[in-house]
Input
Amino acid sequence: MAKAKTNTDDYLRMYRQMVRIRAFEDQANQLYLSAKMPGLTHMYSGQEAVAVGICEALTPQDHITSTHRGHGHCVAKGAEFKPMFCELLGKAEGYCRGKGGSMHIADQSNGNLGANAIVGGSMGIATGAALSHKMLGDGQVTVCFFGDGATAQGLWYEVMNMAALWKLPVIYACENNGYSEYTRTEEIAAGSITARAEAFGIESFSIDGQDVLAVNRLAQDLVARCRKGEGPFFIELKTYRYHGHHVGDINRDYYRSKEEEAEWKKSRDPITGFGTWLQSEGIVSSDDLVAINDEVRADAEAAVKYALDSAYPDGSEVDMHVYSDTEHALA
Amino acid sequence: MREITLSQAVNEAIAEEMRRDETVFLMGEDVAEAGTPFKITSGLVEEFGTSRVIDTPISEPGFVGLAVGAAMTGTRPLVDLMFGDFLFLVMDQLCNQAAKTHYMSGGKLKVPMVLRTNLGATRRSAAQHSQSLHALVAHIPGLRVALPSSAYEAKGLLKTAIRDDNPVVIFEDKLMYQDKAPVPEEEYLLPFGQANILREGRDVTLIGTSSMVQVCLKAAGLLEAQGISAEVIDPRTIVPLDEATILDSVRKTSRAVVVDEGHRSYGVTAEIAARISEKAFYHLDAPVLRFGAMDVPVPFSPALEDLTVATPDQVAEAAARLCRGEMFHAA
Output
């Protein structure tokens, strides 16, 4: 088995990336609560080790597909704060020029094929990207992120079948945060999720999604095997969503207790856990970690301010980008 | 000039484009050795191999989803959807994913894919293999929709579709696959958004799509025998629609009949008639009349099915009454 990233720079980058995701989400939540953000958004907080552990095993050219809960994947795949906050606020400097918003956010130049607002909607896209890369012979790997709720979509079974038949370089990464929107996953998922992938002959794994090193170690191994033509693979990553289904899902006692949430935050937090490990190994001091946190939070605050002050797209952009070869579709 | 069938014309178009561009590939149910139930793709797998002529499982949403992802990542999939009726199975992948990706990414991602499928009743195939559903996809911004009306049109439009960087849906009339037409040996393409005037006339404009072009031409012949001069226009693509050619014709003739095989209500004929009414109203001497498929599920019995599609006699009779100035309410 390949080793996880093992030098200090790699460790610190993984830590910083997780902190960046948390800081981004905290700011996004504040933008919602202060009514500065149009629409709703879905927080990734609590799941950071999944996105970072996997994306740190990829090159910028490798592709990912993301979900409605996609800010974490976007940051982990290399996106910057300013164009991300601009996108959240519908501004012209957003990654999608304000046309996608939170649920379609992506830094396309870093291999992100997009967040997707249809649950499970990107499973075909990810598998097709893998087909493309196999045909082009460029050795690139595609990771398809989706949640436990998406395992109920029929599309997954169709594309897993083709991925297995054609040995495509795709990794299906199921972030099982225990909740399918407002319903406990055990109420909507029969049997075992890994067994579903295994039924297609796909080698499957179930791991602790709060342990960034464990996630990264497995991801590096599977990415290397995909590049050698041994894909596809399936990983179930057991994780937890700190917020509700979306930022407006505040009173959620009817499906999840405050005690359960507090317990995960106290004893299973991926950032705290990794920080403790880094200190116990003598890699960093607690002051170093505080400094990283402070710096990242200052970056996020500055990016929010930048985005709030930046311009909306001109009204003339409304019919641009409908067709790639037509500047204005309605002209 | 040599004459070939519409089926042969489509086969030639695919083969020529696959020879020209090695990123073009064909996928769908039974497209390889079987050559599809209509034997349209026969011989392609022998020339291009199974890596570029791919038989898929019977998983329409799955393989259309793969095509979307493949198109986003460097290849140009041509998808065979065996019957147009199966569009209902793939609507999320086609309309939520393919159609919107370029727009939602602010123009950064492209989806150069073609969905080839068919339309047309009177094949005694009942309600789930006989529908003409092009209006459904024409309703979705981001998709282009082509409706070839002969072997010549099918070849030229399909080659253009394959070279288009946007998702294109092209509908062939499944009853015309064995119809022959003159098709040059040398390469040609037919641009999208340029209607074809098949016959010039003074008294009434007949606008027909797909196989209804033949209905309009036959109706024009019947009208000529009555001393009425009909102009016949084939829009070729309904998205983009060559509104100018249609409006110029109607301004000249002052009368129009629109004929299409989609259901009459909320469809292509309504759209074209509305544009004529909005933009050429003061040139009209009579209401714009429409013929579409009867608003019933397509019945199996020949005695019933034949009642559901417009005939040359019906179109000629309606046009003649318009020209005689009779008050008219279309059935």
About this structure: The two ends of chain B are 41 Å apart (CA to CA). Chain B touches chain A through 43 residues (CB under 8 Å). The mean pLDDT of chain B is 97. The longest helix of chain B spans residues 87-104.
